[in-house]
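Title: Comparing notes on inverse folding

I've been comparing how different people in this forum approach sequence design from structure. To keep things fair, I'm posting one structure and asking everyone to reply with a full sequence. Here's the target:
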């Protein structure tokens, strides 16, 4: 088992911080008369502050994900967890982080906001992990390595043995962003948290769970890591409505599973249809709810699709993604319209 002292790894200002103590921290039980938090006493569904540690919701998530509740942090989207990891572990102007490339754009944005250098480790041509490229970027000030798996925008998962070898040798935190894991046949890294206490796993309610508008993300890690994130988060970062609506959604797990199965079937169908179009140069294998597709003339196709009222993500300027569009899997009807429009584009242009 890997050994790491996350308190030592964290920034001195965070280690020495006395966090804000909420009224709910100081008195947790249900009192009949609540005069401690300067709330409005008249009932609306939301006149009281929410549970700052989302205990009820975490119990449900713990059961679903087969982890302990003290291994879960909840954020205002996983984007909040990404930002808090920078703030907890990276000294501005001094420390650096490594991200695979191409990958999710928020790692760079969060790095920029926090004045932390982001170093890129290019993936191989087939978007598989290049261990040498990752190791080449690491130095004594590297605090975080971002590995997105399944990766956005390429859709593939990172090789398990290579990730383990990074986690084994790296003295900082390996952040494995699993926003798309529910669409994948591979297991989550959440089961490895005890073995690798320097792993943080990010997941979200925004994709398979269909709650992107609520803004609810999960970070799974050792209780030490969760304590550090809780210490620096805004006190009531998950509002009451979000906590309640997420709990309600968790009652519908079978419906979520049906939707995920349909999306995976549609992904297969869309991939086959695209491969049958001769101007489609490559459909990359995907473990996510999107396909990365190399077209000839991606920019022209992108603009044509917009004229047809269909918006996809143009990734042509990302490393290794020249002429690539990222297509989210929609409903059967939406996917049908997409294929028809792509065929129409090529008929009109030949
Ligand atoms: C890889 C990855 N991580 C995280 C996120 C953001 O998730 P959330 O909506 O929970 O902030 C996204 C959103 O597209 C993503 O692609």
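Reply #1:
Here's my take.
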């Amino acid at each position: 088992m890997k050994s790491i002292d996350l308190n030592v790894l964290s920034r001195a200002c965070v280690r020495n911080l006395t966090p804000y103590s909420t009224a709910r921290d100081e008195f947790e039980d249900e009192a009949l008369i609540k005069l401690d938090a300067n709330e409005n006493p008249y009932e609306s569904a939301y006149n009281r502050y929410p549970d700052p540690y989302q205990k009820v919701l975490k119990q449900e998530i713990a059961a679903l994900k087969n982890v302990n509740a003290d291994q879960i942090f909840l954020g205002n989207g996983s984007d909040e967890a990404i930002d808090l990891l920078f703030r907890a572990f990276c000294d501005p102007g001094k420390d650096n982080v490594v991200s695979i490339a191409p990958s999710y754009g928020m790692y760079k944005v969060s790095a920029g906001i926090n004045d932390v250098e982001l170093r890129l480790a290019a993936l191989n041509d087939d978007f598989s992990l290049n261990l040498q490229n990752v190791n080449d970027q690491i130095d004594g000030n590297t605090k975080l390595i971002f590995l997105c798996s399944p990766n956005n925008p390429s859709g593939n998962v990172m090789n398990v043995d290579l990730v383990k070898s990074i986690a084994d040798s790296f003295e900082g935190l390996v952040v494995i962003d699993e926003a798309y894991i529910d669409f994948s046949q591979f297991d989550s890294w959440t089961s490895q948290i005890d073995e690798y206490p320097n792993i943080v796993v990010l997941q979200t309610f925004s994709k398979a769970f269909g709650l992107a508008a609520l803004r609810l993300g999960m970070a799974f890690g050792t209780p030490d890591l969760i304590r550090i994130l809780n210490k620096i988060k805004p006190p009531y970062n998950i509002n009451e409505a979000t906590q309640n609506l997420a709990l309600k959604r968790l009652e519908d797990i079978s419906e979520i599973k049906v939707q995920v199965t349909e999306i995976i079937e549609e992904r297969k169908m869309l991939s086959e249809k695209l491969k049958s179009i001769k101007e489609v140069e490559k459909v990359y294998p995907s473990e996510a709810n999107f396909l990365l597709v190399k077209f000839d003339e991606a920019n022209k196709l992108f603009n044509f699709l917009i004229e047809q009222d269909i918006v996809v993500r143009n990734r042509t300027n990302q490393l290794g993604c020249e002429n690539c569009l990222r297509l989210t899997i929609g409903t059967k009807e939406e996917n049908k319209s997409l294929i028809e429009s792509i065929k129409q584009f090529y008929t009109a242009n030949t």
